[in-house]
Design brief:
Blueprint (H helix, E strand, L loop, with lengths): L1 E7 L15 H4 L3 H8 L2 E5 L10 H8 L4 H4 L4 H7 L9 E10 L10 E3 L7 H15 L4 E7 L2 E6 L6 E2 L17 E2 L2 H16 L2 H8 L7 E8 L7 H5 L3 E4 L3 H9 L3 E3 L12 H13 L4 E6 L1 H7 L3 H25 L4 E6 L16 E7 L13 H6 L3 E2 L5 H6 L1
Parallel strand pairs: 1-12, 1-13, 2-15, 10-11, 10-12
Antiparallel strand pairs: 2-14, 3-4, 3-6, 3-9, 5-6, 7-8, 13-14
Helix pairs in contact: 5-10, 6-7, 11-13, 12-13
């Protein structure tokens, strides 16, 4: 038996005016997912435990079967594991976004124009973080480049007694109410302010402005945490696992849990990602002996943060066609018995442009035991109509693997 998780990050949503009061899942053309919904098991699951923030870190850990109140130690340490940063037990890591702020002279008066600096490329971002590191690295603080706008700062003997805000939570808002608070708040803010001066005249930004793209005008520090200690996935569940993602956070979870992290050429984390390549890599992993493959696709979440309903709908349709549809066909051709779990980690509503903690719909489909057609398509409303509700999201995997 093979187990496949199709994780459409942020795929769930609220009704929106652009779709006549319907959600993205209501209007998306997704015949493969809807077939599995009709002939599988549909329900709702709460992936974000009470008292936890609805981040992709918390929610994906939950989907993978980890009780976040026990295992969660912060977002950025998982990303550090992905990019190969060797952390000491006393280190504190921070996510370091490069963002576009408005151009008011006083830093505190600026607005968060773009939390991703125009979905900046990894190559461009690497040059910018290199410039920041050259000026701001010290015996205490060091910067490391990651993917696209997502980077890392490590503070030797730092503190997690801080209040820091994810930049994607404050799109189009003045930043003055969201600046660092707590231990070392002044020093963190000073690093952010100094980065603005470093980035302002950088050749990468001049080229981006000339091309009509958003420049990366500042770093933004958030997502504090300490070195994670996850139980080994195989020891915990008795199966070999592999993870396919373009996002350092998800790759880091895989590495910390002892699973194989598979890179796919052209995987970007956006709607232009290599969906087909991810599906092909998943099939190869299953043929090569993996029992469990977790395919994470960030595109719906990014479109939610950008308030882009058309591309969020397209993302769901591409996941259906190029990933779910492809795997349905190829697994049948190869006569592989399988179970597939299809779900988001959390909703990222278009009208809010950020994550929420609401329960999400899930489907479990078993190729050996197709259920009689229920007539139910895969939507949030239909999920709520069922009597299946899982309050502790980290226990869903037990139902899936049973």
């Amino acid at each position: 038996m093979k187990y496949i998780v199709i994780l459409g990050d942020g795929m769930a949503d609220y009704p929106i005016d652009e779709f006549g009061g319907k959600t993205v899942l209501d209007v998306a053309d997704k015949p493969n997912i809807d077939y599995m919904c009709e002939h599988g098991e549909l329900g709702m699951v709460k992936t974000v435990q009470d008292g936890m923030k609805p981040g992709s870190d918390v929610a994906n850990l939950s989907v993978m079967g980890y009780d976040t109140k026990k295992y969660y130690s912060g977002r950025s340490p998982l990303e550090a594991a992905s990019i190969g940063v060797d952390m000491k037990d006393t280190d504190v890591t921070f996510r370091c976004n490069i963002v576009t702020l408005s151009d008011e002279e006083n830093y505190e008066d600026k607005t968060m124009v773009d939390y991703s600096a125009g979905e900046i490329s990894t190559e461009e971002a690497r040059e910018l973080i290199k410039a920041v590191a050259a000026e701001l690295n010290s015996d205490i603080v060091k910067f490391y480049s990651g993917v696209s706008y997502r980077h890392l700062m490590i503070w030797d003997n730092g503190s997690t007694n801080v209040e820091l805000t994810p930049p994607h939570d404050i799109s189009d808002r003045k930043i003055k109410d969201y600046l660092p608070k707590g231990d070392h708040a002044d020093e963190i803010l000073e690093l952010m302010k100094k980065s603005e001066k470093i980035l302002k005249e950088h050749p990468v930004n001049k080229k981006r402005i000339a091309a009509g793209k958003n420049p990366a005008t500042s770093i933004w520090i958030w997502g504090e945490g300490r070195k994670p200690l996850l139980d080994n996935f195989k020891d915990k569940f008795g199966i070999d696992g592999a993870v396919i993602s373009a996002v350092d956070l998800i790759k880091g979870i895989a590495i910390c849990a002892g699973m194989k992290s598979i890179d796919v050429e052209g995987a970007t984390g956006n709607v232009d990602t290599n969906f087909s390549g991810k599906a092909e890599a998943a099939l190869k992993a299953l043929k090569d002996g993996a029992d469990f493959v977790y395919i994470h696709m960030e595109a719906p979440d990014e479109c939610g943060h950008q308030g882009d309903p058309a591309n969020k709908k397209l993302s769901v349709e591409l996941i259906d066609k190029k990933v779910v549809g492809y795997l349905r066909e190829k697994l049948a051709e190869n006569k592989m018995d399988y179970k597939m779990l299809i779900m988001p980690d959390h909703p990222t509503p278009i009208k809010l442009k950020t994550h929420v903690s609401d329960p999400v719909p899930f489907v479990i489909y078993d190729s050996r035991e197709e259920k009689e057609g229920s007539g139910m398509t895969y939507t949030e409303e239909n999920g709520r109509k069922t009597d299946l509700y899982i309050d502790e999201g980290y226990t869903l995997i037990n139902r899936f693997l049973s």
